[in-house]
Amino acid sequence: MNKPDPQVEIVVDLDAIAHNVRVLAEHAGDAAVMVVVKADGYNHGAAEVARAALAAGAREIGTTTIAEAVELRAAGITAPILSWLNTSDADYASGIAADIELGVSDLAQLEAVAAAARRLGRTATVSLKVDTGLHRNGIPFAEFPEVLERLAKLIAEGTVRFRAIFSHLALADEPQHPVNDGQRDRFLEFIATAKEHGMEPELVHLSNSAAALTRPDLAFDMVRPGIAVYGLSPIPEQGDFGLRPAMTFRARVLRVKRVPAGGGVSYGHDWIAERDTTVALVPAGYADGVPRVLSGKFSVWIGGARHPQIGRVCMDQIVVDLGDNAAGVQAGDTAILFGGEPGHPHADEWAQALGTINYEIVCGPRGRVTRTHVGGDR
Q1: Cα separations in angstroms, 301 against 75, 259, 334
Q2: Is the pTM here over 0.85, yes or no?
């Protein structure tokens, strides 16, 4: 029996994911592409995105936590996977058992990885995340020699394998900012210091989406894009770079009705009809990831045109003013909240209205929202 169509859903186009990976690969030149699928693939579905990306030429996958990486292994992803944000008491054993590359940001984490490897009787693969100026996660330069000395001993005893050195940029969305050059120079210092201690990394990587698209000099051996994989520009003011948004947030129109002039709509009657009009009720609200503070600040695509959302966003629903263009719109029609087709509202519009970034917008749909994948080899 076919399941009924969901009232509110996100549709993820895996062909768009593949297209975006190919765009990024062109910018990367000879560098490999690691696709970041943390936070369930930025809410697009980590395993599905990983498969589509690898089929399109990505070489590796990046996650935040070990649990995310292990889930990908369980889903059949065999490509190299890096996990880089873990505490010293994280479940390193499960990562080692699943052949996950473990990002290490301090000596305590390195010791914890080594202890887990000894318990399992297996060699752990580690990469060193270094702090080149973001001052968030990563090994500070002053602590680096001590970590290298301990790492050398662990390598010699066969407890760990040293794979990579990597870091993260603070101002990549301002490509020509001098901080980017400073981080590159400090990154090179880290690499040189490792070599002075007799440890040659198999590869080094620094670039995120913005740098991958605008700073080819920072590509090194691999780029590590996130948001661009999903078709959203890391620097919206510089254009879309030929990327295609992969997510469409949509719902089915629940009802179409008339509102007389002077009639108030939704709680508080913040919006009052200036004339007789027609409205559509759409069953998506702040419990589904439509921010309440977006009330009256966005439009919805229904019946081949944009229409303003009116009144307060409620927990379960919004109201859209169809005005004089309601002909043919009826219950069951599709309402696009944001997507990637010409004319559709864009996630960047929501981000601008809310004073945030497109990353947060696509991570927003939740709760009762159903996720559907289309395209790819499905």
Answers
A1: 35, 20, 8
A2: yes
